[in-house]
Amino acid sequence: MALRLATKLAKQQGWKKVVFEVDCLQIVEELNREGTERIESVVIEDIRSTQEFFDECCFTFTRRVNNFVSHTLAKLAISLEFSAEWKEAFPAWLHDLVQMECKGSCSDFCNLVSILQ
């Protein structure tokens, strides 16, 4: 579900080159699978239909320990009664976490770095 929301947000923001790091290997494998042996799933099909909007779109597997920011935000989201959205100013704690995680791992392909600078 989080990946579906992330792809829709990236589309709404008008981003054209995106990388989605996912900590579920089965989802990454399914999204990268071509041919007739694809699993029929409403969520997977929603993600695939959004994927067509991007010039470059990549789904990669990363272990949860390597995706600390996403894991931290997911835990926060579970505890919230209402949704939270930050578009221009991020909380300092989130900014610090993202900078630590991105240091040395993001390329020009990463929209996140340009947002934070």
From TrEMBL:
InterPro entries: RNase_H-like_dom_plant, RNase_H-like_EbsB-rel, RNaseH_domain. This is RNase H type-1 domain-containing protein. Residues 2-77 form the RNase H type-1 domain. GO terms for molecular function: nucleic acid binding; RNA-DNA hybrid ribonuclease activity. The lineage of its organism: Eukaryota, Viridiplantae, Streptophyta, Embryophyta, Tracheophyta. Pfam families: RVT_3.
